[in-house]
Write a structure and sequence with these properties.
Blueprint (H helix, E strand, L loop, with lengths): L1 H24 L5 H10 L1 H34 L4 H98 L7 H27 L8 E2 L1 H11 L1 H6 L2 E5 L8 E2 L2 H17 L5 E10 L8 E8 L27 H11 L3 E7 L3 E9 L1
Parallel strand pairs: 2-4
Antiparallel strand pairs: 1-3, 4-5, 5-7, 6-7
């Protein structure tokens, strides 16, 4: 800015001096040229007023007047009528410089005021937008709390109406099993009955844990070993769907603190969902890696589950972790909701990225 002003001052000074020199070296008999040169002073005066305001207009008009007066006095002496006209012209130089400079300063002040107003409006809009986003988040939390309340009531009903009969069924099956030898058909049927009873009991427990989560028991969990175990467990499912499962670990993944059994449930849910999303075959890539620490917080382990399935519609993505939301026929809509609860209870986070026709990626982050 300083260099720009210096350049402008040099232009104004050169213009005033140049016009004055031309005046002095032009013969007096060339009245027309003197009239033209005389009015050329208005150009640097007006430009000075625009560039530097009232002070600039007055300084250049006074400089032009001082340089032009000797020309009037010494070269036009004896022509009083001409001198009076030129003295009035000199007065007009200063009037034009002052008025133009004043108007220029008013315009600059108005522009600055409008810029401040625009900045204030922009800040207000940003605050309103932030408040609107906050209101939307609060509404989402209220809706989620309402769904959790409904789930809590449902869980209490299940606990009372289902678990007690399940206990009676299991006890009866165990008594009946003693009447049949191992290996007989009825013994095998009773074994199936016991397993299904246990499975139903676990479903009820999932409802209870989701509605009333409890802190996970502290322990160390080897993520690499747990992921390998889940891959082994799902071999038959992957084979039935013609899905290839690959684990890519770029480095040694440290252990995390938490409940291995619950984390296994997280990995199982995500891997099973990925396999079922590829009914015509595909691949599931599991990639654990260590993330660098951020600030005072310790590092985190990220486990990425990427499949080549059909993907999730953009309208459905914001709702995938909501209780009872499902796109599967016959699905309960609790798998991912429970998964998110378990991850968050371990101090971690889970996110999803997906595009129709290009697959889905879930990222689970757990503190080391």
């Amino acid at each position: 800015m300083k260099g720009k002003n210096s350049f402008r001052i040099a232009i104004l000074a050169a213009s005033v001096v140049g016009i004055t020199v031309v005046h002095y070296f032009t013969p007096l008999r060339l009245h027309v040229f003197h009239d033209i040169f005389q009015r050329l002073y208005y150009l640097p005066i007006i430009f000075a007023a625009f560039w530097f305001g009232l002070r600039g207009g007055l300084v250049v008009s006074l400089a032009a007047s001082i340089l032009y007066i000797p020309h009037v006095v010494f070269q036009w002496g004896g022509h009083l009528t001409l001198e009076m006209e030129k003295y009035l012209e000199i007065l007009l130089f200063n009037v034009v410089g002052a008025v133009t400079g004043f108007l220029s300063e008013r315009e600059d002040a108005r522009r600055v005021q409008l810029e401040k107003t625009a900045q204030g409006l922009e800040d207000s809009y940003r605050k309103l937008q932030n408040q609107a986003d906050l209101i939307i988040r609060i509404e989402e939390q209220l809706r989620k709390a309402e769904r959790l309340s409904a789930l809590g009531e449902l869980s209490a009903t299940l606990a009372h109406e289902v678990r007690n009969p399940l206990g009676s069924i299991r006890g009866t099956a165990e008594i009946l099993k003693e009447d049949f030898p191992t290996g007989s058909k009825k013994f095998e049927f009773l074994e199936i009955l016991l397993k299904e009873t246990d499975r139903l009991n676990r479903v009820v427990e999932e409802f209870l844990h989701f509605a009333r989560p409890v802190p996970p028991p502290l322990g160390t969990c080897d993520l690499a070993a747990e992921l390998a175990a889940m891959v082994k467990l799902l071999e038959n499912d992957a084979l039935a769907y013609n899905v290839r499962i690959d684990i890519h670990a770029a480095e040694i993944v440290p252990e995390v603190t938490g409940d291995c059994e619950r984390l296994r449930q997280v990995f199982l849910n995500l891997m099973l969902n990925a396999i079922q999303s590829m009914p015509h075959g595909g691949s599931l890539e599991i990639a654990p890696r260590l993330l660098p620490p951020q600030g005072e917080r310790g590092g985190k382990v990220e486990i990425r589950f990427s499949d080549t399935g059909g993907g999730i519609a953009s309208d459905d993505l914001p709702h995938v972790f909501e209780p009872f939301f499902t796109t599967k026929s016959g699905g309960t809509g609790l798998g991912l909701a429970v998964t998110q609860k378990i991850v968050e209870s371990h101090g971690g986070s889970i996110s999803v990225e997906s595009e129709l026709g290009k697959g889905t990626t879930f990222r689970v982050r757990l503190p080391v």
